[in-house]
Design a protein that fits this description.
elongated, Spore Coat Polysaccharide Biosynthesis Protein SpsA, Chain A, 34% helix, eight-stranded mixed beta sheet, 18 strands, Rossmann fold, 20% strand, single chain, 3 domains, six-stranded mixed beta sheet, alpha/beta, 474 residues
């Protein structure tokens, strides 16, 4: 296990963009964003800020980081190498913390689109490949083999070429832009004065849409727009591996940073196809609360929570006359108590972060009794506990929305109709006789409604039960 030191180099002033390290996006300065990024990664509690600015020192202290040395003037000039600044910070940290740090992770203040997963990924690449140095970059938007030129001897030429004609950018050799996001150094690299772009160095690839270094006012406005867009909002989906849940996470993943908690996930954590997957059980509410808090710490504040959980006990299809008290209570606990406790945890987080959006799933069985004739000549049933719990979720939604009035929190639920899931033909035939156009629904019919409720397009919708049933309830 490495002794890891985070460094943030942030001097006062800037010729290109004055005081850019102090610029704010959504009430948070760029220096504060870098401090939070180090914490969110969870890789180390040791952080050094190298600065010659009293204002940056003051902001750092406000955020719980003591700046116990001032960067000397000789290291604050325009022509000073950043590596020299980091080496100086490492020497100071060794003495102050009485530790010998063997890995230094430097976070650039001017790259606020960098995420904790990028920091962790760059560090893991260094460890896995035993590199001396790793930095971050993205696939270049321009290619010197195809559409980058220079004037040489009065003639326009490609910057570089190979012994074959390149007819498209896709056919050209891949090149990358360094994006100033993360720099991971071994102690050996710094102490032995190794050169960049030499042997045993790696590049961690980040997506282009998060690769933006602020040098000008125009850069700042672009980054500001990206951070304030929907794509940087964290949406937590509980039960994202189910029939409706899987459609929800895939749909939301197009616009948001999606986190899926499901008990059926095989690994404790996995990041695949742009989605964070965590193994978690909402029926074990203490462990779920701990997991929720860790997610907020590592990934950031959660903007919306969508509860897609669905439970079936062994007694699910029992006749109403044969259900024991224990079975009844267990079903109510699974279906209703867990929904309340999950809502409680989400709302507590929203209150601290200043805003939030909670969406629960109810059912058409929560707004009126089942149409029992739909189940004739099948082995299907609609348990009374299900109707009781789902109707209670609708009431809970209205109660909570009104209780948290003027708290910038929206709380709604959706009552889906029947979803296609290989039901018996007899049931489908009977069910469709009670609908108007579609009949049994597809999961996307619900996930599209979830997407709308998550978005600001539904900002005036609060405390509502949205029925999506193709007229079944008429």
């Amino acid at each position: 296990m490495h002794n890891i030191l985070f460094t943030i180099a942030a001097r006062k002033g800037s010729k290109g963009l004055p005081d850019k390290n102090l610029l704010e996006i959504s009430n948070m300065s760029l220096i504060e964003r870098s401090i939070n990024l180090a914490r969110l990664s969870g890789l180390s509690k040791y952080l050094v800020i190298s600065t010659d600015s009293d204002e940056i020192k003051k902001i750092a202290k406000k955020n719980g980081v003591e700046v116990w040395f001032k960067r000397p003037k000789r290291l604050s000039e325009d022509n000073v190498s950043k590596v020299d600044v980091i080496k100086h910070a490492l020497e100071k940290a060794d003495i102050f913390y009485k530790k010998k740090f063997d890995v230094v992770i430097d976070l650039d203040v001017t790259a606020p689109l960098t995420k904790a997963e990028d920091v962790i990924g760059a560090y893991k690449l260094l460890v896995r490949e035993k590199y001396d140095f790793v930095t971050t970059g993205c696939e270049s938007r321009k290619n010197p083999y195809f559409n980058m030129v220079e004037f040489k001897d009065g003639k326009l030429n490609l910057v570089t070429s190979i012994n074959k004609k390149i007819v498209s950018r896709q056919k050209a050799p891949k090149v990358y832009d360094l994006n100033a996001g993360v720099y991971v150094y071994t102690r050996k690299f710094l102490v032995d004065n190794l050169e960049m772009f030499s042997e045993n160095q790696g590049l961690y690839i980040m997506p282009q849409n998060r690769s933006w270094d602020i040098d000008t006012k125009e850069d700042f406005e672009i980054v500001k727009s990206k951070i304030q867009s929907e794509s940087h909002k964290n949406v937590l989906v509980i039960g994202g591996n189910g029939l409706i849940g899987s459609s929800v996470i895939n749909n939301l993943n197009k616009k948001y940073n999606v986190i899926n908690i499901d008990i059926s996930n095989k690994k404790e954590y996995e990041y695949t196809n742009g989605i964070h997957h965590y193994k978690g059980d909402v029926l074990d509410i203490k462990s779920y609360k701990k997991l929720f808090n860790n997610i907020c710490k590592n990934i950031g504040n959660v903007y919306a929570v969508v509860n897609c959980t669905h439970f079936k006990n062994k007694s699910w299809n029992k006749d109403i006359n044969n259900i024991s008290e224990e079975e009844f209570n267990k079903n109510i606990q699974n279906l209703l108590s867990s929904a309340f406790l999950v809502s409680q945890i989400a709302i507590d987080h929203f209150m601290k972060s200043g805003k939030g959006n909670l969406i629960n799933l109810s059912s058409i069985q929560g707004i009126q009794p089942p149409k029992f004739w739909h189940y004739e000549n099948t082995d299907m049933n609609s348990p009374i506990e299900y109707s009781l719990a789902k109707s209670s979720i609708i009431s809970m939604t209205k109660y909570l929305a009104k209780y948290y009035k003027n708290k910038n929190i929206r709380i709604n639920c959706i009552s889906p109709g029947g979803i296609n899931d290989n039901q018996p033909n007899e049931f489908i035939k009977n069910y469709e006789a009670s609908t108007l156009n579609i009949g049994m629904l597809d999961p996307e019919d619900i996930s599209n409604t979830v997407e709308w409720l998550v978005s600001e397009k539904s900002r005036a919708i609060n405390g509502q039960n949205i029925i999506v049933d193709d007229g079944w309830s008429l």
